[in-house]
Specification:
The chain is an alpha/beta fold. The protein is 39% helix and 15% strand. It is built from 16 helices and twelve strands. The strands form two sheets. It has a seven-stranded mixed beta sheet, sandwiched between helices. Helix 5 (88-99) crosses helix 10 and helix 14 (319-328) packs across helix 16 (380-392). The longest helix is centred in the C-terminal third of the chain and has 20 residues, at 257-276. The radius of gyration is 23 Å and the shape is globular. The structure holds pyridoxal-5'-phosphate. Pyridoxal-5'-phosphate binds next to helix 5.
Length: 396
C-alpha cells in the first residue's frame, strides 16, 4: 500500500494529484482557473508576494490567462504593456483613481459614456477631485490647471460619433504635465490606435467589440509599462480583476477582431448612406459620411475607410417616433450594449441619456427620436431592408 492509499478518502479527495504543467507551449491560451498559486517554500512565497521574484500569487492580483489577454490587446494597440479588468468601468475607475488624488483636477473632452461621466461628475468630487467638462481640444488646453493630472476623451463619442483631435489633446495635456487617456471602445485598435497619435493610456470595455459575442464582460488598459505598473497596483487594492474564464472568451474574440470590425464598419457605412437617403430620416450621425462634422479628422486618424460600427439615426418626429422605430425593426433587438454579432438598437432619450430632457438633449446634439444602431454581422442588405421597412411603417 502506497503512502497515498493509507490516507482517508476525504484527504485523498482534497489532495488529488496536480495537473501536469507541459513543457510544450499550449496552442490556445490555457485557462488558469485557480484563485491561488502554490509555492515550493515559505521563502519563495514571501519573495513573490513582495515582488522580489516574478510570479503569480493570487488571481485578484495577477492571473496568467487574464494577463495573456491584456498583452494581446497591448500588441494590437502598439502598446508595451496592458492590464486586464473585470469590466470597462473597472478599467476606467482604476485608471482614474491611479492618477488622480485629492486636490487634483481632470479635463473631460466631448460626450462621455454615462458611467464615466457619473464617476467624474458625482463620485470623484467626494474625494476632492474636480473635473472640467469641455467640448474640444482648444477648450481643453484652456481648462488645464497646475493641478490637472488627466485629460480624458473617447475615440468615437456616443451617440454623436464626434472624434477628438488626439495630437492637439496630447500636446495640451503634456504641456500641462497631464496624461492623455482615451476610451477607444467604439473604435477598437482595428480602426484607430490613439497611442500612435500621442495618447498615454488607452482603455476599452472589452465587453463590446473585443469580446464580440455579447457573452463576456471585461475591460483592459494599455500604455507604457511604468504607467501600467501603477494601474496594476491600484487594481490589486481595489479588486477589479478580470476572471480567467472571461479572459479566455475575450482573448478568443481578439483572434477575429480585425475580420469582424472591418465587416461591422463596411456594413455601417452602407447602412448610414441608406438611412441618410431615406425621407423619414431627419439626420444620421456617422463619421464615415462626408457631411459629418469630424469626417476629415476621422479620415486622418482612422485606418483607411474604417469609421466604426455604430450609427445614430434620427427619424422625423418626437420621442415616440424613436421608440416606434425600435419596436418595428425585426432583426435588431432593444439591447443596451453594442459591438456584438447581432444588430441592436437603443432609443437614446429613454435609455442611455434618460436623465436629459429634450432641451438638454438638443444642446448635446441628440434628437428626442434618435436611435443608436450597433450594426451587426448580418448581411448588410438585410439590415438596410429591415430598417427601411420599419421606417415606412411609421406614421407620417
Ligand atoms: N466605455 C464605453 C464607451 C462604453 O460604451 C461602456 C459600456 O457601455 C463602457 C465604457 C463601460 O464598459 P463595461 O460595461 O464593460 O463596464
Amino acid at each position: 500500500m502506497s503512502e497515498t492509499e493509507k490516507l482517508g478518502i476525504d484527504t485523498r479527495a482534497v489532495h488529488a494529484p496536480p495537473a501536469a504543467v507541459p513543457a510544450e507551449t499550449p496552442f490556445a491560451p490555457p485557462v488558469y482557473r485557480t484563485s491561488v498559486f502554490q509555492f515550493d517554500s515559505a521563502e519563495q512565497y514571501a519573495d513573490v508576494l513582495a515582488g522580489r521574484t516574478p510570479g503569480y500569487v493570487y488571481t485578484r492580483i495577477d492571473n496568467p490567462t487574464s494577463d495573456a489577454f491584456a498583452a494581446a490587446v497591448a500588441a494590437l494597440e502598439s502598446a508595451d504593456a496592458g492590464q486586464p479588468f473585470a469590466s470597462g468601468m473597472a478599467a476606467i475607475s482604476t485608471s482614474l483613481l491611479t492618477f488622480l488624488s485629492a486636490g487634483d483636477h481632470a479635463v473631460a473632452v466631448g460626450a462621455l459614456y454615462g458611467g464615466t461621466y457619473g464617476l467624474l461628475h458625482h463620485l470623484l468630487p467626494r474625494w476632492g477631485i474636480e473635473t472640467t467638462f469641455v467640448s474640444d481640444a482648444a477648450a481643453a488646453a484652456a481648462a488645464i490647471r497646475p493641478t490637472t493630472r488627466v485629460v480624458w476623451t473617447e475615440t468615437l463619442a456616443n451617440p454623436t460619433m464626434r472624434v477628438p483631435d488626439f495630437r492637439a489633446l496630447a500636446a495640451a495635456a503634456h504641456a500641462g504635465g497631464a496624461l492623455l487617456a482615451v476610451d477607444s471602445t467604439f473604435a477598437t485598435p482595428v480602426v484607430c490606435r490613439p497611442l500612435e497619435w500621442g495618447a498615454d493610456l488607452v482603455v476599452h470595455s472589452a465587453t463590446k467589440y473585443i469580446g464580440g459575442h455579447s457573452d463576456a464582460t471585461g475591460g483592459v488598459v494599455v500604455g507604457r509599462p511604468d504607467l501600467l505598473a501603477q494601474v496594476r497596483a491600484t487594481r490589486a487594492e481595489l479588486g477589479g480583476m478580470l476572471a480567467p474564464d472571461e479572459a479566455f472568451l475575450l482573448h478568443r474574440g481578439l483572434t477575429t477582431l480585425p475580420l469582424r470590425v472591418r465587416r461591422h464598419c463596411a456594413s455601417a457605412l452602407e447602412f448610414a448612406h441608406a438611412m441618410a437617403a431615406h425621407p423619414k430620416v431627419a439626420s444620421v450621425d456617422y463619421a464615415g459620411l462626408p457631411d459629418h462634422v469630424d469626417h476629415a479628422l476621422a479620415t486622418e486618424q482612422f485606418d483607411g475607410g474604417l469609421y466604426g460600427g455604430v450609427v445614430t439615426i434620427t427619424p422625423r418626429g418626437d420621442r415616440a417616433a424613436g421608440q416606434r422605430l425600435c419596436n418595428a425593426v425585426r432583426l435588431a433587438g432593444n439591447v443596451t450594449s453594442l459591438g456584438g454579432a447581432h444588430t441592436v438598437v437603443s432609443h437614446i432619450a429613454s435609455t442611455t441619456h434618460r436623465q436629459l430632457d429634450d432641451a438638454a438633449l438638443a444642446a448635446s446634439g441628440i434628437g428626442a427620436a434618435s436611435v443608436r444602431v450597433s450594426v451587426g454581422l448580418e448581411d448588410a442588405a438585410d439590415i438596410v431592408a429591415d430598417f427601411t421597412r420599419a421606417l415606412e411603417s411609421l406614421p407620417d
